[in-house]
Amino acid sequence: MIKICLPGKNFKTIILVFFLANLYACNRDRNNPGWDYFPDMFYSTAYETYSKNPNFENGMTMRVPVAGTVPRDFTPFEYTSGLYPLKPLTLAGESAVKLRDGEIFHTITLGIRSMGAHGSQIRPEDRWKLIIYIRKLQEEGNKANLSPK
Questions:
Q1: Which of 1, 30, 35, 128 has the fewest beta carbons under 10 Å from its own?
Q2: DSSP string, 65-82
């Protein structure tokens, strides 16, 4: 004789066991996180940036990014040759050498012509450091132009 399992005593027992298991899983103790189903994924082995790592062929932990990747929160601007309407002026040219330091500071802060303002992005003391760097580049350019070939 074929016995057909009707919802009855067995079904109620299964539901009761399932309910009790769920009730047991709901723990009010906030100091105990509960069960870890995959502890090797939850507690992964962390490696220092420049330490040896047995997981990779060359043993390096710090990996080289894939070619063409872009850092987070960075928008690349693709400049193609010949399509930019205004050619930027060089800071090593005669016109920039004649500028006073205050004029360069003002240009960095508020911008000029097609150059945008950078006052909100560069601190004033860093702007002065930029001017010193520009002057050093101009001196190196002049030395290269004056040296006999």
A1: 1
A2: PPTT---TT-----PPTT
- The alpha carbon of residue 112 and the mean position of all alpha carbons in its chain are separated, in whole angstroms, by 30
Q: Using CA atoms of 98, 104, 90, 116 in order, give the dihedral in degrees to the nearest 10.
A: -150
Tokens representing 1 are 């004789």
H helical segments located in 26-110:
39-42, 94-97, 101-110
Residue type at 88? P
Residues counted in the chain:
149
Beta-carbon contacts of residue 76 (< 8 Å; ≥ 6 apart): 70
- pLDDT tens for each residue of 96-111: 889 999 999 998 999 8
> Which string of b and e fits 20-53 if b means at least 16 CB within 10 Å?
eeeeeeeeeeeeeeeeeeeeeeeeeeeeeeeeee
| pTM greater than 0.70 | no
Q: Mind listing the pLDDT tens digit for each residue in 51-96?
A: 898 888 888 888 888 888 888 887 766 666 666 666 667 777 788 8
